[in-house]
Amino acid sequence: MNSIGLLLILVLYLSILFYIAYWSEKRSHSKWTNNPYIYSFSLAVYCTAWTYYGSIGVAADSGLSYLPIYLGPILIIPTWMIILKKIIRISRVNKISSIADFISLRYGNSRFLGALVTMICIFGILPYISLQLKSISDTFHIVTKTQASSNIFTDTTTYVCLALALFASYYGTKYVDASEKRRGIVTAVAMESILKLVFFLIVGIYVTYFVFDGFDDIYQKAAILKDFGKKNTIGGITNGINWFFLCILSMFAIFLLPRQFHTAIVENNKESHIRTAIWLFPLYLLLFNLFVFPIAWGGNILFEGKGNNSDTYSLLIPQFFDNNVLTVMVFLGGFSAAISMIIVSSIALATMLSNNLLIPYGFIGSLENSSQEKNNKRIVNSRKIGIFSLIILAYAIYRLFILDYSLVSIGLVAFVVIAQLAPSFFGAIFWRRGSKNGAITGVILGFAVCFYTLLIPYATGMTNSVSLFVTEGPWGISLLKPFQLFGLDYLEPIPHAVFWSLLINIMSYAAVSVSFKGNYRERNYAEMFVDIDKYITNHENAFVWKGTAYISDIQKVLQRFLGEERTKRALTIFNLKYNIDKNITTADARFIKFAENLLTGHIGTASAKILISSVVKEDKISLPEVLRILEESKENIIINKKLTDTSNELKKISEQLKNANQELVNKDIQKDEFLDTVTHELRTPITAIRAATEILHDDEDIPEELRKQFLQNIISESDRLNRLIDKILDLEKFETGKQKIYLSKNDITKTIKNTIDSLNQLIKNKNISIEFADSNKVIKAFYDEERIVQVIHNLVSNAIKFCSETNGKIAISIFENETNIEVKIHNNGKVVKEEDAEAIFDKFYQSRNQNIKKPTGSGLGLAICKQIIEHHKGNIWSESNVTDGATFIFTLPNYNTTENS
Amino acid sequence: MKKILIVDDEPNIVMALEYTFKKNNFEVFIARDGQEALDILKIQLPDVIILDVMMPMVDGFATLEQIKKDERLRHCKVIFLSAKNKEKDIEKGLSLGANLYVVKPFSVKKLVEQVHELIQ
Description:
The complex is a heterodimer of chains A (about 900) and B (about 120). Chain A contains 34 helices and nine strands. By secondary structure, chain A is mainly alpha-helical. A five-stranded mixed β-sheet of chain A has the order 4-6-7-9-8. Chain A has a two-stranded antiparallel sheet with strand order 1-2. In chain A, strands 3-5 form a two-stranded antiparallel sheet. The two termini of chain A are about 85 Å apart. The relative contact order of chain A is 0.08. By secondary structure, chain B is of the alpha/beta class. Chain B has one domain (about 1-120): Response regulator (Rossmann fold). Chain B contains five helices and five strands, in the order E-H-E-H-E-H-E-H-E-H. Chain B has a five-stranded parallel β-sheet, with helices on both faces. In chain B, helix 4 (about 85-95) links the parallel strand 4 (about 75-80) and strand 5 (about 100-105). In chain B, helix 2 (about 35-45) packs parallel to helix 3 (about 60-70). The chains are: A mainly alpha (about 900), B alpha/beta (about 120). The interface of A and B includes residues 691, 716 and 717 of A.
């Protein structure tokens, strides 16, 4: 493949990526760019050219030791649900835009610590970027079968690198606020992640199944190569310890690498996306490793003794078989891996460079009095230049220093350097006592150790040659040998450096933190970081600040960065959030923190603090006072919560009261109606009695027969009166729960028969035929016989009363199922209307539209039946949709069921 | 001979009234509810109607409304006879055009006097 052709393909490929970035930036709110899959795939920026090519190199040259770099993340990712969520929350409320912001803010918003972290990151990552450029360049020359030109102006990779630098600086600085999301870049990175995986899997399948005959074939052919066995065992305890440290290293890397912090935290849109990432991302890593081994050993078999660079086997194998399409595909996959790392890393580094180093230490003074446009332009430009120069600088490093190193060595050194941030990073979210001085001491000493044990030997190129410094130690002191510090001789250089640097780092961090208390601001942020869940909604409350400040002064500062419009809007939101009168002129702690947050995205935490401090007068607070205030604010939050709970409770109670009141009103109306009816029902017999008595009293010559009739009327009306009073009292007893039910085992058929017998005379009088099916069956149930007799008596009496005048028929039947016994009493009289079916069980319900003469009765019979049956835990109802009369049904719990329970 | 229509669904009350008014030389008609009363009124023109309020089907109030619509019955005197003794019930009864509202229980003797007063 010639250079021009490949370059054209590259240009096409890059423009597609540009277009994806452009397209998704425009649709930054659509679900295509804001979904958990884009998020998860963007995390795969972890897999760089080092993974893409380097793993194969390691697998070919030294066996399985490429695995820990993926095992570490896979092991630690399940904890993301807790840890990553916490970090995301802290970063969101504090508008954190980089790991330097994160660490420095926690330790009292320390400008120095932010700068230190930035330096460490640049120091660790810049060579790592160089490494990616190197891989692009190397593979470009392999694919085109050309030699790298020593003149940078004739080397095509120079121009590729320039294009990249322009792309990154253009798209990476779309927003002044660095904590804003960059959907374009993220979507492009996610696309590249998918492509690099797909291309890698394709070449893996090609090598395994087309060049060879599957895994078995490769294994058998590789097994006869020398060193195969030795390379492919983990090896005793020492190698185990090596593995252990490498796993730890990569666990840290997945949190701390600036590009990982950027994609996982700064670009996180929704906490819930983590849920997808914790399975998808490990799956991605596993898939990526599936074919590393076959490609590596396939290469070893094919190129045995030819001295090819094993890093590039995935390109060399298809090229060996003249498969140009596949070669280019693999190249594009590696190119994707490299550029996504370069772009995301350079954006993250440039943000840190501007927000944590250049602005707070450099041109913050010049920002103080300029206009908003000028300021924003300055900030954006500084970042643009930052990204551009970082990439160019990395290219320079590649050209000058690392033409010869294998991919893995540089990558791991970067990991070790970055790992120095681990103690202060994890301490930040879990340990309140961790202090600024502790963090600074830890990072510096840890870095110093890894500088001595790794960077010096690597940088001076002494790893590959026999060097007295490495083999004998400086000045011949063997205890100071950089690869066997203090006689620790069984670890490989990288795990060795990890061990010593982190040991010293952690010890000094802990020791200094415990010995010297941090200042109040550190303690304040410690509280906010460790207990983020408590402060998540009103985090400004947790900020402790005392002094004199005027809103107008702070407003002026804000306007210089946000502009008048946005400042005004932000103020309104703040006032609404905390219910503050907009006429208040003095600013409180919450406002100070709010203002700092607004500036943080633009100029970083440290500069935000500096700018705000310049317009306010802060009083010193002692540490105990801070602790007291924090305790109070904690209490306040608890009290607030309690108040909300109480007010909710009150709301509920008042709702209940309202309902209860409504019920009472209804009951009152019912009671009035009831009394009215009772009065009427009582007065009617009294009226009859009074009239009859008066006639008997006044009229002496009343005929004997009539006299007797009137006396008879008086007797029957008195009885009626008495019955009515009995029933009212009966019902009252049931309704107030004073009526007791005495359950005993009875035979319902017998009870029914007895009741019918007592009504026989009435039935005969009206010439009614009564039919009782199942009258021979014995059906047992638990009930109060006296009461059930009352119910049956009432229902049968009603049936008699309402039966057809001529040819009256009553049918009684019993049904039994698992749970109930059902008694059905039917008469062929008047149909109960559907709208009356329920109401007839109400007290004194008398259907106004009854098309018959008013039957005798108290109007309480069915109401009492209902009470009795319900006290037996049964049901009573009148069956609707019966057309040939009226059917009343009641149920009682089945004896078997009641017995068993 | 004066004619009187007694409308009530309580047979014992009706019996007492029937006896008393007959004894006082009235021609007595009896209806057990409002509908029956209206049927009788189609063929008879009583001087007095004694009307119970709470009756099935067509109650006393509704019956009176019907009576008032009938021009022929313009001269009929109407007495309500009711156990409902609340002011609003009495007011309603009188506003519908009844000449008298008698609360149950009542004195038969006094009722007869009131009827005599009404038709003089």
